[in-house]
Target: tRNA (guanine-N(7)-)-methyltransferase
Amino acid sequence: MTGRQADALDRLFTAYGLPVPDGPGAPIDPAELFGRAAPVVLEIGSGMGETTAAMAGADPDRDYLAVEVHTPGIANLLDLVERHGLRNVRVARGDALELVRRLPAGSLDAVHVFFPDPWPKARHHKRRLIQPAHVALLRSRLAPGGTIHCATDWAEYAEAMRETLDADPELVNTHDGFAPRPAHRPVTKFERRALLAGRPVADLIYRRTPAGQPAGPASPAGPPSTA
Model:
């Protein structure tokens, strides 16, 4: 970590951070965590925090709960929170699925999974975040009408994500296959490097259907976005 990041972690984690210990723990009340009742966006794997900070700054009516395991990334996001005066961001340190298990059912307005580890080797696919059991857990925390938005630059993982999300009985694709690149998702340095290397970026946006309403047939496949 840089000195600035270390200082931010020391000073700000108590106010804006949330430790997520392994194993069972107390439920998390988002309204208590943020000090207000507002729609909540969960950012899984916030990296160095630039995307979270930019989206939260442009979206003050929603609260952003970022979860990350990389300490320098957590510290950098805390520094961005202070520099930009963001009051609608909290940063959880620990395992994302443990955090999600402690959130109330239906408590999230959106889940963002941007550029998760693709675990490209077949023997490691079981470690991927987007797989049926994990998607079911994430969906259960979405309010009806809430969205799960995934993005990846790994073509095989993009197809696997689409198949997994299509198969969930309470999620419906908001586009025919892959989504056009949303303008509200900031372009990160990681994404720029992927595009320069010739790896197209695929976005997938699915909405949780209201209780009792069928999601309908799976959407047809489409090419990943290169925009």
User: Anything to note?
Assistant: Residues 214-227 have pLDDT under 50 and may be disordered. Residues 20 and 67 are 9 Å apart (CA to CA). The chain has one domain: 3-208.
